[in-house]
Amino acid sequence: MEYRKIKDDDDEDASDVESLKGKSHTVASSNIALATLGTGGSTERINWKRKGVVTCALTILTSSQAILIVWSKRAGKYEYSVTTANFLVETLKCALSLLALTRIWKNEGVTDDNRLSTTYDEVKVFPIPAALYLFKNLLQYYIFAYVDAPGYQILKNLNIISTGVLYRIILKKKLSEIQWAGFILLCCGCTTAQLNSNSDRVLQTSLPGWIMAIVMALLSGFAGVYTEAIIKRRPSRNINVQNFWLYVFGMVFNAVAIVFQDFDAVANKGFFHGYSFITVLMILNHALSGIAVSMVMKYADNIVKVYSTSVAMLLTAVVSVFLFNFHLSLAFFLGSTVVSVSVYLHSAGKLL
Amino acid sequence: MEYRKIKDDDDEDASDVESLKGKSHTVASSNIALATLGTGGSTERINWKRKGVVTCALTILTSSQAILIVWSKRAGKYEYSVTTANFLVETLKCALSLLALTRIWKNEGVTDDNRLSTTYDEVKVFPIPAALYLFKNLLQYYIFAYVDAPGYQILKNLNIISTGVLYRIILKKKLSEIQWAGFILLCCGCTTAQLNSNSDRVLQTSLPGWIMAIVMALLSGFAGVYTEAIIKRRPSRNINVQNFWLYVFGMVFNAVAIVFQDFDAVANKGFFHGYSFITVLMILNHALSGIAVSMVMKYADNIVKVYSTSVAMLLTAVVSVFLFNFHLSLAFFLGSTVVSVSVYLHSAGKLL
Q1: Quick one: where's region Disordered (chains A, B) (predicted)?
Q2: How many angstroms separate the CA of residue A2 from the nearest CA in chain B?
Q3: Which residues on chain B are in Cβ contact (under 8 Å) with A189?
């Protein structure tokens, strides 16, 4: 369960890597945008390509994330403080954003769009996603009084539905009926793929448990959709600046969490107590997947993000068959088929 | 398992009831058809209404069939010969067809379309569905060497896919891509709804078991699609005549089955040994659902039939909650949702 927390925390994220390696690409694409003004075909193709690349990156990073979790479980239990790891993930993402920005400043000079300094009007919304995730993570401690851990994993699929609903309401973007059908199927398929002999216990969840699960799904969905809204509100603003500020607040909130949750452990045993090679790998992976999430928010949307992480979950299971000799259940095959069909429907059902 | 056999046998069926109670309706609808020649709106509405009525009838009859099976199991084991019950189902359907025809002859007189006498060219294809079902039922005895009964119930969902594929190949009717997606989901959803803790055993099925399951699915799908082809080949021919000949061959094949399988029991204990009130109810139900299947074949198609019987399976489970205090599993809810979405997709994905 522990690494889940890291994952939840870094849902608000940066696309630093994009600028690290893709700066010239961005310049090139805006030149092309000017050149093809009127037809727009090439720009659209480049946008599609970029969308595809970031989506694949997110899928691969998310699936390797889950594999690292399994690996760490096999390797034994790690006695590090989860809050310190979360803090380091935010710090790493912040550092990568700054690194990307220094390269951009060197190449393009400082402009209104890429300067780090900001206004209260721009920055005031940036703490909100981090605060939402913190609140959700606090709730997570209480929900286990009502639901066991496997049950919680199943209830987390409610996130899919809440993201879809809030995406519609807050971002006012429309999905076609076929795409909605696909989205419901995505939720059913993911849950089916996770079914095991104890899953039925989740049906005995009491009313407070259900309410908390729904509130958590709404918080998580809202944080995701709100992050997309922040990133897309100023289209010309450089994303690395936007991410920098998102991550600064992520660092602040996680620092507070260290003080409240793990102060004694950190004071007595040190900040890095219990860290190992695999902990470092996982922090690296979480930071990169965080960046990938941000890029997907910028170049695609929350819906694509949900599809991407869902497909990642299935990929993880398939890879685990080879790596850890996992056995796939019939429920997994059925769920995977349903998820595949839902991916097809999302693309086939596009509003023209 | 025993009643399954009855069910499999009467997949080729009659719409006698339609004529018993719907004669005036048929006359009325042909009058309307003439009146609205050119616009066709009313005719279409009547066709849709008729399609809806027969589909609902099939759904309700099929679900009550399964409830009778549960009831009969609760009431204890019945020591009657299954082959004699199958034979009586065919006989009852044959009698109902004749009864419907006598009414038609009285109202309309004997015409080329409703006369009972037939040609070799017309009748030569009628034994084929009955023969296919017989062959499939024989295979059923052998497949249990490779698969257990719950596993067989799961593998039977392959029928859905085989029906879709053969419907496309033999009847050359097109489904849209969205409808194909719906059909795959229907298969996944039905299987998911039936999942239990032992379902994974079906994945250990050996190659001969898989081959037999696929052959059985193809035989069953082929018999269904072939029956539709026979019924629709001569559109003006009265369906009760077509059904009469189908059922005559059903009687013949089942008579042969009595001789080969239950000759001793029938000779020593009598034809009706072990019959009870519930046996009679089940025979009646099977005859009526057989008739409903035939009506669906005539006024709709095999795809609608598959959807109808699948939805019936889900309805049965829901009704069983109230009747027998069944507990519905999480898998059932997920499967039902997937089936519901697939029904929506079938209708939303219609080729225009």
Answers
A1: 1-22
A2: 26
A3: 338
Portion 59-98 of A in contact with B at CB < 8 A: none
Span of A60-69, A305-314, B153-162, B220-229 with lowest mean pLDDT: A60-69
- Dihedral over alpha carbons B22, B27, B30, B35 (to 10 degrees): -130
Q: What is the DSSP letter of B201?
A: G
Is residue B114 a contact partner of residue B241, using CB atoms and an 8 Å limit?
A: yes
pLDDT tens digits, A304-343: 999 998 998 888 888 888 888 888 899 999 999 999 999 9
Distances (CA, A) of B275 to A151, B103, B272: 48, 32, 6
- Cα distance between residue A197 and residue A214, in whole Å: 24
A168 domain-assigned: yes
Question: How many other C-beta atoms can be found within 10 angstroms of the C-beta atom of residue B252?
Answer: 15
Helices (H), chain B: 2-9, 16-35, 41-74, 82-108, 120-123, 127-143, 149-155, 158-170, 177-193, 207-233, 239-269, 277-299, 302-324, 330-348
CA distance A105 to A98: 10
User: Judging by beta carbons within 10 Å of its beta carbon (0-12, 13-18, 19+), is residue A123 exposed, middle or buried?
Assistant: middle
SS3 assignment, position A177: helix
> Which residue in chain A has the smallest CA separation from B349?
A178
Q: Which of A54, A60, A302, A301 is nearest to A160 (CA)?
A: A302
CA distances from A316 to A68, A154, B275 (A): 10, 17, 55
Cα dihedral A248, A240, A230, A210 sign:
negative
Please report whether residue B211 resides in a domain: yes
> For residues A85 and A280, what is the distance between their CA atoms, to the nearest angstrom?
9
Q: Which two tokens stand for residue A16?
A: 């630093």
Of the candidates B154, B203, B341, the beta carbon closest to that of A181 is on B341
- Set of chain B residues whose Cβ sits within 8 Å of the Cβ of A345: 178, 181, 345
Find the closest chain B residue to A177 by CA distance. B348
Q: At what angle do helices B2-9 and B127-143 cross, to 10 degrees?
A: 160
Q: Which residues of A touch B200 (CB under 8 A)?
A: 327, 329-331
Instruction: Please tell me if residue B184 touches chain A, with a CB cutoff of 8 Å.
Output: yes
Tens digit of each residue's pLDDT (9 = 90 or more) over B221-240? 999 999 999 999 888 888 89
Residue B334 within a domain: no
Task: Say if CB A291 and CB A15 are below 8 A apart.
Answer: yes
Q: Is the confidence metric ipTM above 0.85 for this complex?
A: no
| Shortest CA gap A197–chain B (Å) | 5
Given CB atoms, is A345 within the 8 Å cutoff of chain B?
yes
The range of the structural domain enclosing residue A14 comes to: 2-174+197-299
* pLDDT bracket for residue A204 (50, 70, 90): confident
The count of structural domains within chain B is: 1
> Between the CA of residue A330 and those of A33, A196, A333, B159, B204, what are the distances in Å?
48, 10, 5, 18, 10
B333, closest residue in chain A (CA to CA): A188
CB-side neighbour CA atoms (13 Å) of A352: 1
Tens of pLDDT, residues B60-102: 888 887 777 767 666 666 677 888 988 999 999 999 999 999 9
Q: Please indicate, yes or no, if residue B342 is contained in any of the structural domains.
A: no
Q: How far apart are CA A183 and CA A252, in angstroms?
A: 35
CB pairs under 8 A between A and B: 80
CA angle A99, A102, A108 (to 5 degrees): 140
